[in-house]
Amino acid sequence: MEFCASPAWRQLVREVILPVALDGASLGPDVIEIGPGPGFTTDVLKGLVQRVTAVEIDPELARVLAERLSGSNVEVLVGDATDLDLPADRFTGAASFHMLHHLPTEAAQQRALSELARVLRPGGVLVAADAGYSEGSQLFHAGDNYNPVEPEELAPRLTDAGFSEVEVREHDLGWVCLARAQ
Prior knowledge:
CATH class: Alpha Beta
CATH superfamily: Vaccinia Virus protein VP39
Order of helices and strands: HEHEHEEHEHHEE
Radius of gyration: 15 Å
Largest sheet: 7 strands, mixed
Strand content: 25-35%
Distance between the termini: 34 Å
CATH topology: Rossmann fold
Number of domains: 1
Number of strands: 7
């Protein structure tokens, strides 16, 4: 968490990851973000859409983020991305940025992707970014969940979760994808 809350990570998010991930994405006015952590990605999203619902599993991270963004267009919920307590077909867009690798199993990742497909309106856009395996990342995540998703595995997994029109692009820090809920 130390690096994920650092100025260096904030800069990478703002200047590298999100510009690549959001290129060509039209999320609509009402977006769900899973796993916002310290909220660096939320800070960018809230300036692009009318409403962001950020779902964070860690109660303390959620509390701090909710306090920081109080009075903004962001609602922060404590929740589990693999079992969202939200209605189906609610959101126009969904976002997951460097979060999937923190889920301990492929089955948990699939549940999270399926939940995003469920809460998105038909045709709603998912934008996600993460990275495949690297030895450096594995060492960096010592003592933490590290379950990377390889880019070549992503399209069939998203299709199985209820998405279509899947586009996966690789870049210097991993992969980004766009997909539409069916």
